[in-house]
Fold:
Amino acid sequence: MKKSLFETLKQAYANKELWVEVKSELKAAGRSTDVSDFLDPFKNLIIGILSQNTSDENSVKAWVGLTEKFEITPQSLAKADVRKIRNSIRAGGLYNLKSKRIKELSKAVLERFGGDLTELTKLSKEEAREKLVDLPGIGPKTADVWLLYCASRYVMAVDTNVDRVAKRLGMVSSSASYEKVREGLEKAFAPKERREGHEFLVRLGRDYCKPRKPLCKSCPVRELCQKRI
Structure:
């Protein structure tokens, strides 16, 4: 029987740490390799903003810079001087825009949820997503990452790596929107496979299916790919 994409990826990455890049980047930045901050509902959104349109390495540097200057709570960041936020995250790029978004998001979380996002974890994924994307600086990808990791919902979050891999594998059209890519992946992965499947696809995009000069000859899903070289 032909293996599913999930089974193929699981075998390819057996016994490998899917968080290895984030952990190594935190360690290089002089921080603990603990990634539990990613599971905190508010911190996850801040990390999401910092990760927009930049590399993982730069977003980690920005996160470290922010945590060195501020307590990462909506109360602290809502009253912070936006210039100080901007200076603390400068290493991550787009710091003018992101500093404003961080402050606006913090204010909104205080005003709409009393500073506590726990109530969103109790809503349906559709209701929670709607409230998340209505927050300043939060788009569909950041919302879906939050749902996946903070609310344990069976969604497929689509970052740039996942989008590229899905399109090259021919799972969706090359012009598919975010929602169409997510829908296509959710058909391909069973609900309980989606968190690990997301992490596998992120790793595949970083390790093999690179934006330029993909390593097609050594890719573990080469035979499934329509774009292989």
